[in-house]
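User: Sequence recovery, please. Input:
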């Protein structure tokens, strides 16, 4: 028996026994992306803040998937996860998350309540002060959410950085902004819908010249646009709003989106970009990937 043959046999036996002992499990092949949240338990209050980890998205061989799609499948939620906080292309703290009591049956509010809690022995970072910027429909005061990963791939190869877009950029996307205003049936007192006043909110540019531009108008309407280095434009807000525009209820047509983080979480050389998103009776998160050609959503309702 030659050495290579004996090595294959021994390796196979080792893997077999490790599998039986639980050291190698199917979950090890899954990449999880979630968020660490810290919010109050009362409206318009910054008291009684508590931390939770929301597992949002999972990647297996078949690609990215929102955990909302199979929210009641307990096998997709590890009892414990070792999370790494990703922020601005850097890995911050690593800590352990523990799954809270998993519901025994499906209920409509599962996407809102399923979460892990951080092991209390870790000192986790906070950015800024708790406010309503990421509170959404509930008006609870929250710290800014932080992306957490089940691996340590935090780098952002696109190197997204804040910038101020020039007037020519704003003029180029204004027609698409106005088009979407009509799609969401926008109305606002004393505003000319054909020529509303536009304000540039915090926007971002990559090292290759791609842009994420955030435009606002009165009555709390804002839209995000992705413009690649060749000038091709996409109204990201229109993409994520479209299924809500098509439903029978008109009160949830438009959304508010805030950038949370960008990073190459799956190590494929391109950055994924996570946004917090809120609309009437619904909050959650969106992740764009494959150069903003695709996105997945994890969101929940309140009534």
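Assistant: Recovered sequence (303 residues):
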């Amino acid at each position: 028996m030659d050495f290579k043959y004996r090595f294959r046999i021994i390796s196979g036996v080792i893997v077999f026994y490790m599998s039986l002992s639980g050291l190698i499990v199917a979950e090890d092949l899954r990449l999880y992306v979630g968020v660490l949240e810290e919010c109050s338990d009362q409206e318009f209050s910054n008291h009684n803040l508590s931390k939770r980890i929301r597992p949002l998205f999972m990647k297996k061989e078949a690609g990215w998937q929102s955990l909302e799609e199979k929210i009641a499948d307990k096998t997709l939620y590890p009892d414990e996860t070792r999370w790494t906080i990703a922020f601005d292309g850097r890995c911050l703290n690593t800590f352990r998350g523990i799954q809270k009591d998993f519901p025994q049956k499906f209920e409509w509010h599962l996407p809102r309540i399923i979460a892990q809690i951080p092991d209390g022995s870790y000192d986790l970072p906070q950015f800024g002060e708790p406010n309503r910027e990421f509170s959404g429909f509930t008006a609870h005061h929250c710290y800014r959410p932080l992306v957490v990963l089940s691996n340590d791939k935090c780098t952002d190869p696109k190197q997204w950085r804040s910038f101020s877009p020039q007037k020519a950029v704003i003029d180029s996307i204004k027609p698409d902004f106005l088009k979407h205003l009509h799609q969401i049936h926008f109305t606002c007192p004393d505003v000319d819908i054909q020529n509303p006043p536009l304000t540039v909110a915090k926007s971002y540019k990559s090292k290759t010249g791609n842009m994420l531009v955030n435009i606002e108008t009165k009555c709390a309407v804002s839209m995000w646009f992705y413009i690649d280095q060749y000038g091709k434009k996409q109204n990201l807000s229109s993409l994520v709003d479209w299924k809500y525009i098509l439903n029978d209820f008109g009160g949830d047509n438009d959304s508010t989106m805030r950038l949370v983080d960008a990073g190459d979480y799956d190590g494929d050389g391109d950055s994924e970009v996570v946004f917090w998103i809120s609309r009437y009776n619904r909050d959650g998160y969106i992740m764009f990937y494959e150069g903003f050609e695709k996105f997945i959503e994890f969101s929940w309702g309140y009534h």
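The chain is about 15% helix and 35% strand.
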